[in-house]
Amino acid sequence: MSKAGGDGDVETAKLQEGRTAPATAGPGWTKVNCPCCKSERVDPLVLVKLGPKVRPETKRWLLRVIGAPQQEGGAALLAHPGEDATGNIIVLSAPRCTLLKATEELGLCKTYNNGEMEAFSYNDRDNFKDSDNMEAFLTLAERQYMVKYELDGLRAQKDLRIPGLLDGYTLHHRDNIWRKLGSAGVIVDMLPLHNPDKLKDLSKAWYSGNQLAQPLDSINGYFGNSVAFYFSFLDFYTWSLVPPAVLGLSITYFSGEAHKETGESVSGSAVTSDDDSGPAVGGHMIQAIFNMLWSTVVMELWKRRSSSLSYRWGTMSLAERFAEPRPGFHGDLGVNPVTGRVEPLFPGWQRDLRMALVSVPVVGLFLGLVVLGMLCFYWGEAQVQQLHRDWDSLLSQTLLYVPSVLHIVYTNVLATVYKTAALSLTEYENHREESAFENHLTAKVLVFTFFNCFAVLFHIAFFKQDVPLLRKRLASLLVVTQLLNQVTEVVIPFLVDRFISAPHRAESKDDPPEDKFRNQSNLPAFPGLFAEYIELLVQFGYLSLFSCVFPLTAVLLLLNNITEIRTDAYKICKLFRKPFCPPGANMHVWQIAFEVLSFVSVVSNCWLLLLSPWLQNLCREGGWSSTNVLLVAILVEHVLILVKVVISVLIPDEPDWVRKKMEHIEFTSMQALREQVNPPPDISVCCRSTWSP
C-alpha cells in the first residue's frame, strides 16, 4: 500500500486525470489487490476533510485502514492523500468488488442478463448486465453512498492506539472507527464530490430550459433515490392540483357567495350581505366532497407510481435490518442473535422507557408552547378588532393582519427550535437502523407540525365556529407562509452564495483538483428534505381540510409549486453541497402522514358543511334538533369514510406488472437460497447403476 510522497505535480496530474498504472490504482492511490478490480481509470467519489492539527503519521495510518481488505478490518476502498501526507484532505473511490459486495448487502436489485430485475448476488455477479462496468452498473449516487456505507461500518478488530493521537483516543474492540475519529477531531467533514459535466447536463435538462417534465432517472442517478422520490412526488402533486384549481376558479367566478368571501379575506372586514357568512350549499359543498375524494385518489395513484419507480430503480427489496448498525448507535458489545456478528446491543425496553419518560414529555412541552402562542394570537386578534371598530381607518384595517403575521412568524421560529430538540431526543433514544432513526425523528416533527400549523384553524372552525376568521386566517397563511419559504429557502441562500461565499470559491481551469474539491466543501451542507416535505404536507392539509371555505387555495398552491420545482432544483444543484442519499423504496413515514390527513379531511369538511346557512335554515324549518343534525353529520361522515376505503381498495397500491415482477424476484431469491443451502446432488453418482448382466 503506497504512502504519500514523491513528486507533487505528478500526484496532482494523476488525480485529475483519474489514470492508474496496471498493477495499482495509480501513484498516490492505495493498491488494488484483486485482479478483477484493476482499472485504467479511478473516479474520485468522496472527499474527506481532516482536522488542522492532524499529523502525517495519523493520516498515513488512516490511509492504510481505508485501503486494507475487509477481512483485515479495513474498508477495501481506494484512497488518495491529495497533494502530500501533510495535506488536510483524502480523496476516496471504490474498486469493483467492494461496490458489488455493498450492492448485495444493501439488497439492491439490478438487471439480469435476461433483461429482468433480480436481487443482486455477489456469487452470481457475472450474470448481471454491465457488472464489469461500475459506471453503467451503479449510479454515481449509489457508488458515493457505498463509500460512506463502508466507512461507517469500520470497526476496530482489537484494542489499538491511533498513531499521532493521545492515549485518551485509544480504539477498543468493536469501536466504530469513523465515529471515534470524528470525536477526536481527525475527521471534520465528508462529502460526495460533484461531477461538473454531469451536473451541467442535469441542470440543462432540469431547470435551465422550458421543459415541464422532470428528468427523474437523471436525478436518481446523480442525487439518489431520496431526492428523486421527493421531486417525483412534487411533480405528481403539483399536476394533481390542476383539477381542484379549475374547480376553485369556477366556484369563485360563478358563485356570488364566493365573491363576497374573497372580498372578506382580502379586506379583512365583513361584506354586507343578507345571508350569514359560511359555506353555502352548491359550490362549497361540491368543493368539500371533491376534496375528500380527490385526496384519496391522489395518494392511491401516487403509491402506484412510487412502486413503479422503486422497481425501475431497484430499491424494492432493501435489507437494512441485517446491515451494520448506524454510526450513532451505541450499547454493550454482544452477539447479534440474527446475524451472529459481534456488535453493540441495546435492549428495546430501555429505548421504550426513554421515549416514554423523556421524549413524550418534551414533545408535550412544545405542544404547550403552541397553545400559548394560539392564546396570544386570540388576545391580539381581539385587541385589533376593537381598535378597528374604534378607528375604522385604513391603518386599523391593515393592523387586522398583524396578529396573524406575528403568529405565523412565532410558529415558524418555534418549529425551527423544535427540530433541533427532536433530533437530540431521537439520538438519545438510540435506534439501531438508520431508517428507524429517520422514522422516529419524522414522526416527532409531524406531530408538532400538525399541531403547530392546524391547531388554530381547527379551533376557529370547531370551537369558535367563525368561518370569516377561518377564511382570513387561511388566506394569510397561504400568502405569508409561501413568501417566507421562498425568501428563506432560495433568496437568502442565493444572496449569501452570490456575494459572500462565491468570491472565496473562485477557480480557474488550471487550478489543481485538490483546490476544486476544497471549494465544494466550502458550500453549506444540504439541509435535507425535511422542510420540503413539511411544506408539501402543510399545503396538502390546507387544501384537503379547509379549502371549502376558500376555493382559491388550490390555485395559489399550484402557482407556488410551479416555481417551487425549479427553485428547489436550482438550490440543490448550485447552493449546497451534494448530499449522501441512502437507497429508499418510497417516501416512508411521509406517505403515511399524507394518508392520515386525507382521512382527517372527512371530519373537517363535514363539520364545515354543518356551518352552511342553507343547511341550518333547512334544519330549523324541518324542526330538527341539534342532536339529530349531529347524528346525520356523523352518518354522512362514516359513509364518506367508507367510500374512501372502497376507493383505496379498488385502486391497487402497485400495478399488476410490478406485483408480478416482485413475486418473480422473491421466487428467484428463494430458489437461489435453496440451492446454496441444499446443493443439487451429483447426477453421475445418483444415476450410477449396479446392474450386471
How would you characterize this protein structure?
With 693 residues, the chain is mainly alpha-helical. The protein contains 25 helices and eight strands. It has helices at residues 8-17, 56-67, 96-106, 134-137, 140-152, 177-183, 196-208, 216-223, 225-240, 242-254, 256-267, 283-312, 348-391, 394-399, 402-429, 434-464, 467-501, 513-521, 530-546, 553-575, 589-610, 613-622, 626-650, 656-677, 683-686; strands spanning 46-50, 78-80, 89-93, 109-111, 117-119, 187-192, 332-335, 342-345. The chain has a four-stranded antiparallel β-sheet, with helices on both faces. Strands 4-5 form a two-stranded antiparallel sheet. The protein has a two-stranded antiparallel ribbon with strand order 7-8. Helix 17 runs parallel beside helix 20. It is globular. The model is unreliable at 1-26, 265-281 and 683-693 (pLDDT under 50). Residues 219-663 form the Anoctamin transmembrane domain. The chain crosses the membrane at residues 355-379, 399-421, 441-462, 474-496, 536-559, 592-610, 630-651. This is Anoctamin.
Key phrases:
693 residues, mainly alpha, 61% helix, disordered N terminus, disordered C terminus
TL;DR of this structure?
With 693 residues, the chain is mostly helical.
Task: Give the mean pLDDT.
Answer: 80
- β content, as a range? under 5%
Q: What does the largest sheet look like?
A: 4 strands, antiparallel
Which overall shape is indicated by the principal axes computed on the Cα atoms?
globular
Number of helices: 25
Widest β-sheet, arrangement of strands: 2-3-1-6
Percentage of helical residues?
55-70%
The class by helix and strand makeup works out as mainly alpha
User: End-to-end span in angstroms?
Assistant: 67 Å
Unreliable segments (pLDDT under 50, ≥5 consecutive)? 1-26, 265-281, 683-693
Radius of gyration: 30 Å
**Strand element count:** 8
Assembly state: single chain
